[in-house]
Structure formats: C-alpha cells, structure tokens
Amino acid sequence: MDGIKDTRFGAATAKQAQDSDEWRAQALVFRGKRQAMLASNIANADTPNYKARDISFADVLKASSQAEELTDQDGKDRGVAREVPLIPSSTLAFAGYRQPLQDSIDGNTVEVEREQAEFARNTILYTLAMASLDDEATEFKQAAALPNAASPTRRG
Asked: What is the documented function of this protein (predicted)?
C-alpha cells in the first residue's frame, strides 16, 4: 500500500465536509446564544421599559454568505482571508429590537406568550443541530475505528 494514493475523495470534498461541519457548529452556537437572549427576554417580562431583543438566523446567514463571496472579477477564489465567523463574539451585533403587537403602559415590549413560543421553537432547532453534530461525530468515530474491530473474528 505504500506509495498508493487514495483518490476516492478529492480535496474539494474534504473542504466541503469541513465547511459543512464548521457551519453546523456555528449554527449550534447561534441557537445557544439565541436561547439565552430569549430567556433574558422572558426573565425581564416585568421590567419597566425593557425592550425585547431577538436575532434573525436569516440575517446572520446572509451576513456570513456575503462575507464568503470574496472573489475576484472572474469568479475565482484568490485565497482572500475568508475567516469571517458566522457568529461574532457578541451576538448583539445581529440583535434587533422586537416590535410588540400591543403596546404596554410601562414601556416593556416583552410579550411572554410570543417569547415562550420562540423559545420552544428554538429549543427544537437547537436539538436538531445538536443531533446533526452528534451523528457526524458518531460517523467519524466509526470511520476511524480499525476495520477488524467492528467485524467478528472468523473461525475456520
């Protein structure tokens, strides 16, 4: 086997897999940070003049996509630094104030029912993102295991 190169998977496939895994991890981080923001909104439901905040996954994805489209005029990637994280160190960079459906007397814009619904929805999406990463980790562990370790020994 020495000197024989495995060409079943090209460099592009490896790069795509790495980008996919990185994106999944960043999406999980985003969901976790959004969960914290929604929890903060619920916790401050009775705080006068508190403004409910939220982050849009679509806005974060759009910003990330625009950052990755750094190519020259003929469309070829010239190795421009594209290390723009999907989630910045502060999620507040993507946060916006949520407009309430009905104004309150004390100036608080938190609508508890709406926040709870978004919290539940985000929990489901977080769980899906976690399961996706867990599946990838399981597949990696299985692929990294020795071929003979998974199959029973033959008796002859």
From this structure: Structural component of flagellum, the bacterial motility apparatus. Part of the rod structure of flagellar basal body.
In a domain, 48, yes or no: yes
Would residue 149 count as lying in a domain? no
Domain count across the chain: 1
Listed residue (102, 109, 97) closest to 42, CA to CA? 109
Range of the domain at 124: 18-135
Asked whether residue 58 is domain-assigned, the answer is: yes
pLDDT tens-place string over residues 62-112: 776 665 555 444 455 544 444 444 545 566 677 888 888 888 999 999 999
Beta-carbon contacts of 41 under 8 Å, excluding residues fewer than 6 positions away, are 52, 53, 54, 98, 110, 115
